[in-house]
Amino acid sequence: MKTAVGSPRPLLAMALAVLMTGVAACGTSGPRQAGTASAAGGDAGGPSAWIISGVTAKAFQNSFGSWNAAHPGQKFAIQEFANDPYKQKIRTAVGAKQAPTLIYGWGGGVLTSYVAAGAVEDISDLAEDPAVKERFLPSIAAVGKVDGKTYALPNNGVKPVVIYYNKDLFAKIGAQPPKTWNELMALVPKFNAAGIAPFTVSGQAKWPLLPWLAYLIDRIGGPRVMNDITAGKPNAWSDPAVTEATTKIQELVKAGGFVKGFSSISTDSGADVALLYTGKAAMTLGLPATYQTIKTANPKFISDGKLGYVPFPAVEGGKGDPANVVGNPSNFWSISSAATPEQKQAAREYIKNDLLNDKYAADLLAVGNVPPVEGAEDAIAKSDDPAYYSMIYEVAKKAPNFQLSLDQALAPEAGDKLLTTLQQVFLEEITPEQFATTMNATISG
Prior knowledge:
Layout: H1 10-19, E1 32-34, E2 48-52, H2 57-70, E3 77-81, H3 83-95, E4 102-105, H4 108-116, H5 124-128, H6 130-133, H7 138-141, E5 145-146, E6 149-150, E7 153-154, E8 159-160, E9 162-166, H8 167-173, H9 181-193, E10 197-199, H10 210-221, H11 223-230, H12 240-254, H13 271-277, E11 281-286, H14 289-297, H15 299-303, E12 307-310, E13 325-328, E14 332-335, H16 341-353, H17 358-366, H18 377-381, H19 386-398, E15 402-404, H20 406-409, H21 412-426, H22 432-440
Parallel strand pairs: 2-3, 10-11, 13-15
Antiparallel strand pairs: 1-3, 4-14, 5-6, 7-14, 8-13, 9-11, 9-12
């Protein structure tokens, strides 16, 4: 996935210089409501939006706060939810035609299901408006398209998954971060012998397990394997690359690759990441939310140069390009078809004028979330951690293939089944072959 580099954005750099003096506060674990929201609207029938709590929530709050101050007759009512409760609630709301005006999503199979149900508006004309089109990295904006039409536009930072590691712990055992899968496996007994968990992960939330599967499938078989799965090719989950990937996961588990009790560790509270910066675990495979969590909870760990980051390793003999990435190209706003004409118009105006404008983009970068906007290089260069932000920006922009998180790439029912079944793989409750059989049953013939 390649994108063009646009012209510098001086206002973004100026706004960032002010915002980088402090880190934005975390959101609540929600739900938290601003105003009284009705079925698909906000105050007195005005527009509405639901956001996900966490370190990025403040950027959304600031953006809608600025809009509301400038548009007293079109105020957005905002509700905030933790990640997993949101995914359940929004699905129910969309099905009942009671979704907020702006629907927060990830693209992929879920967005496709919304389009098939007529639940979201075609905003192709808005996406082609030069004021909007020239704002976003084209490859990221393209994720909001279904059958050539745009139904969603980016509202958050780019989110490739990489390995984050504790440099002090690597120095303690005299090791370097892994470049290959064999090197990764060789580190496991060394860290365990030193009383350090090789990897921390939240098995409770299930979705943090997904990048392990996606990266191994990609590194072993290349993008074709997941393309066959998302296209609904019969028995696609029986591809040898999938079986080898789940086998490697279980080999890692059996070797003691993950912190003990990982199946009960929470990610919404940041408990999984805390094990990394407190010296209990050496590595974690995570989204940029990992960096954001550390930046908020223990910024000195970053400023002291203790946090390292590297791509997911290559698999010996695999077909996948090591530059391929897994994660979320971004998050996206869609406009609910159930909204009133007035609500839809407010949403369109907000997207055109306020979505990822300079202040909004700077707010994201201030908490470690790299905005998918053209010409962000100058702002990144002036940030407090240009090396990290540049890595995230370039990895996302130059990846030959950017695989969307599997629970979002698949249709909703298949995504749910994957979460449950993959957790069983990690807990060694089922075999790789049973995993394939169960997931093949989700593909309609």
